[in-house]
Design brief:
Mean pLDDT: 87
Distance between the termini: 38 Å
Number of domains: 2
Number of strands: 2
Largest sheet: 2 strands, parallel
Structural class: mainly alpha
Helix content: 40-55%
Strand content: 5-15%
Shape: elongated
Order of helices and strands: HEHEHHHH
Radius of gyration: 28 Å
Oligomer: single chain
């Protein structure tokens, strides 16, 4: 819904400028944007409407660091258009166009990223639990492979052999 509205708004802007500049209906339209959070759905939406679209690696656009200038969206857009025109005329060193993956390839990437994120979260939870157990002096006997069984059976105890406080036990079970 929102995505479709954004694409429709862009198409209306394109049509408005075609009319403003008295361009013929079949004129080639080229759009580019920096790769980022939006991913590649914009590319696919525009290509399905026969609009040439290029996704640009933002880090590939040269920046003149010796000049101190304000960084604004307007200046960035001008730089992007200038580089796109040069790139279209054969100056391939001006920027790097990202290869857009197929919908299936992108879905597979997400699966791999999700797996990596879940693994990271497991390690974070394990570390948080280890730190909680350190406060009770019972980390030295911790083996993460048998931890759940020991916790469920009540065999996990403090440094002096006393049972874990019930609040901590419940928190670890969660």
């Amino acid at each position: 819904a929102q995505a479709a509205m954004r694409v429709q708004a862009l198409l209306e802007v394109i049509e408005r400028y075609k009319q403003k500049w008295s361009l013929p209906q079949g004129v080639r339209v080229v759009v580019s944007y920096e790769a980022g959070q939006d991913g590649f759905w914009i590319y696919r939406a525009l290509r399905s409407r026969d609009i040439d679209c290029y996704v640009i690696d933002a880090a590939s656009i040269p920046v003149e660091w010796h000049r101190r200038r304000a960084k604004t969206d307007r200046l960035d857009a001008i730089k992007l258009v200038t580089n796109l025109r040069a790139w279209l005329h054969g100056e391939r060193d001006r920027m790097r166009v990202v290869r857009v993956p197929s919908l299936q390839e992108e879905a597979s990437r997400q699966l791999i990223r999700d797996r990596g994120q879940l693994h990271k979260e497991v390690l974070q939870h394990r570390e948080r639990m280890r730190k909680l157990l350190i406060t009770m002096g019972c980390w030295d006997s911790f083996d993460h492979r048998t931890f759940a069984k020991r916790l469920a059976s009540g065999k996990l105890v403090c440094h002096d052999g006393t049972p874990l406080p019930s609040e901590l036990h419940e928190r670890l079970l969660r």
